[in-house]
């Protein structure tokens, strides 16, 4: 089996779809409770904007949601007078809840995610026995992105790339000289995302990452998480293709696919599940909406026993 035709095709796509001359403004909001970086990216000429991977605060002990993290995004958007066109999700997160529906009410924007979310809905719909009223067709979202889809944010040119591996539906959004790559690469000193969730695949993750690393070297990469690598005291969420290619501890240039797959699967076997996986998955597979309330008007989150 050879990867050459795939690599050639994707290199073509990426060199054609990168827009290094356009430099969007990016502001990041980091949630230390879930180690999540949410980004607001905007076009300085038109003030058109997109929010990427927002966070709804959730207290697991009490089952209460709060809007503190999301409110910071609202305040920033209003202060700068931004026109939010998109609420983008790189994937259905398993470690935090999306605030997209609440943000849509406050500041607008169409909710977009990768088209393969339907596969995630199928898998988790079964695991959580979500019933027939839970649609598994992606209809909870306003737009389902496919690989290579192009769109505009004001004058900024944007391209959606399918980068499966962490989950089957992960997308990266290349917007001007910036790429929002979700859970694929982390900072060079920390490595890569896990690939052991249902539908995850270490080999697919490797190929998605190598594809991202064919973007121009100066491309700014904005990550979804940071956990501070040993020896680093500050959280960080921005790096470049060049830095990842030279220094990423898991996938710098020259690391063979087999070596990565062995490292990733061995390491994943030692990881416990994220604290908020139960609420996160049930809510994020519904586009950030709570499960349908029961006859007493209350929404409940399920925990499948001995299943995950
Ligand atoms: Fe994730």
TrEMBL record:
The keyword Metal-binding applies. Keywords: Metal-binding. Residues 35-225 form the Metallo-beta-lactamase domain. One of its GO terms (molecular function) is sulfur dioxygenase activity. Transmembrane segments: none annotated. This is Metallo-beta-lactamase domain-containing protein. The lineage of its organism: Bacteria, Pseudomonadati, Pseudomonadota, Alphaproteobacteria, Acetobacterales. It comes from the Bacteria. GO terms for biological process: glutathione metabolic process; hydrogen sulfide metabolic process.
């Amino acid at each position: 089996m050879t990867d050459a035709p795939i690599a050639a095709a994707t290199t073509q796509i990426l060199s054609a779809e990168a827009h290094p001359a356009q430099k969007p403004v990016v502001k990041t909001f980091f949630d230390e409770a879930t180690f999540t970086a949410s980004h607001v990216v905007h076009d300085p000429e038109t003030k058109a904007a997109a929010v990427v991977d927002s966070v709804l605060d959730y207290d697991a002990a009490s089952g209460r949601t709060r809007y503190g993290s999301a409110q910071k995004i609202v305040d920033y958007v209003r202060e700068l007078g931004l026109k939010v066109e998109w609420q983008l999700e790189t994937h259905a997160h398993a470690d935090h809840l999306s605030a997209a529906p609440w943000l849509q009410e406050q500041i607008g924007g169409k909710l977009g995610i990768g088209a393969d979310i339907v596969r995630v809905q199928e898998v988790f719909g079964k695991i959580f026995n979500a019933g027939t009223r839970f649609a598994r067709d992606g209809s909870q979202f306003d737009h389902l992105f496919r690989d290579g889809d192009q769109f505009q944010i004001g004058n900024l040119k944007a391209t959606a790339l399918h980068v499966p591996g962490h989950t089957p539906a992960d997308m990266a959004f290349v917007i001007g000289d910036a790429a929002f790559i979700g859970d694929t690469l982390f900072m060079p000193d920390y490595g890569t995302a896990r690939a052991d969730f249902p539908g995850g695949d270490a080999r697919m993750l490797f190929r998605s990452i190598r594809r991202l690393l064919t973007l121009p070297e100066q491309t700014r990469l904005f990550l979804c998480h940071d956990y501070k690598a040993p020896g680093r005291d500050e959280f960080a969420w921005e790096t470049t293709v060049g830095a990842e290619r030279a220094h990423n501890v898991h996938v710098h240039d020259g690391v063979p696919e087999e070596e990565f797959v062995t490292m990733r699967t061995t390491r994943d076997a030692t990881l416990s599940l994220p604290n908020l996986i139960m609420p996160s998955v049930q809510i994020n597979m519904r586009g950030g909406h709570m499960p349908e309330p029961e006859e007493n008007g209350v929404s409940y989150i399920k925990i499948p026993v001995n299943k995950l």
